[in-house]
Amino acid sequence: MSIRRSDRLIDMTRYFLERPHTLVTLSFFAERYASAKSSISEDMAIIKRTFADRGTGRLETIPGAAGGALFIPTIKKGEASEIIEDLIQQLSTADRILPGGYLYMSDLLSDPIVLKKVGRLIASEYADEKVDAIMTVETKGIPIAQSVANYLGVPFIIVRHDSKITEGSTISVNYVSGSSAQIKKMELSKRSLKAGTRVLVVDDYMKGGGTLKGMQALITEFEAELIGTTVFAEGSFTGQRMIDNVTSLLNVDASNDEIQIQPGNYLTKVFNQSN
């Protein structure tokens, strides 16, 4: 039985939103709704226009017999600015300051609504890149990486400081912590990453950049390719960071028992590149 257009539009929209960066063919939808391909094509045009108008993302249509469409989540500069400003307001309270110039963020980074917004921001930066996997280390960066992976439609990989027996054989690297100058170790299962994999590194907080540098070294050991590095917050740091060209959503100075939070370089990098 044929499905009404209004019902098709709702279901098709949900289907695309749940499967970003995944090609869905006209034939699939035609069979799903017992409708002509021409009708499905018209439905896609409506969804495409609405996504663009509302800043939800791009619905890219692919012509041909096996053609279809895929949804690419993006965000407009105005909405991105509003999200970042809201994060600044929520984090700008004195009781969040931790020893060593760190900031308490666990409550925000466990809030599913916040994580969706952060994941969408980061994924939008790499919407036009071919990303095969997200990499993070076993800290509060895990839920961020998972959210980004969801929006890019790729798996995420967790680097550990101590391997577990369930990981099997691992490859490890030693790295120097940028903030404490201590030598540490991180490792990753040999089965986690194949040579040539294009990897996006995501983490929650950066000071000296030692942890990020260690993940870059692991990517090199696996003969994979680093696509980019993005952190939720960049902390104040005196001296030379061990890594550059990092995108940050927030810039945090929590020294001297005061908090000063400003937008990171995300807005400048992402929207200047797109203009």
Strands side by side in the biggest sheet:
7-6-10-11-12-13
The CATH architecture of the largest domain can be given as 3-Layer(aba) Sandwich
Mean of all residue-level pLDDT scores: 91
**Number of DSSP helices?**
8
Provide the structure class. Answer: alpha/beta
Outline the low-pLDDT stretches.
none
Shape: globular
Rg calculated over all Cα atoms? 21 Å
Q: What name is given to the CATH topology of the largest domain? A: Rossmann fold
Count of separate structural domains? 2
Tell me roughly what share of residues is in helical segments: 25-40%
- Compute the number of strand runs: 13
Largest sheet: 6 strands, mixed
Following the backbone from N to C, one meets helices and strands in this order, namely: HEHHEEHEEHEHEEEEHEEEH
CATH class designation of the largest domain: Alpha Beta
What do these coordinates show?
The radius of gyration is 21 Å and the shape is globular. The chain has 275 residues and is an alpha/beta fold. The longest helix is centred in the N-terminal third of the chain and has 18 residues. It folds into two domains: 69 residues, Winged helix-like DNA-binding domain superfamily/Winged helix DNA-binding domain (Arc Repressor Mutant, subunit A), CATH 1.10.10; 198 residues, Rossmann fold (3-Layer(aba) Sandwich), CATH 3.40.50. The strands form four sheets. It has a six-stranded mixed β-sheet with strand order 7-6-10-11-12-13, with helices on both faces. The chain has a three-stranded antiparallel β-sheet with strand order 1-3-2. The chain starts with a helix and ends with a helix. It is built from eight helices and 13 strands. 37% of the residues lie in helices and 26% in strands. This is Pur operon repressor. InterPro entries: PRTase-like, PRTase_dom, Pur/Pyrimidine_PRTase, PuR_N, PurR_Bsub, WH-like_DNA-bd_sf, WH_DNA-bd_sf.
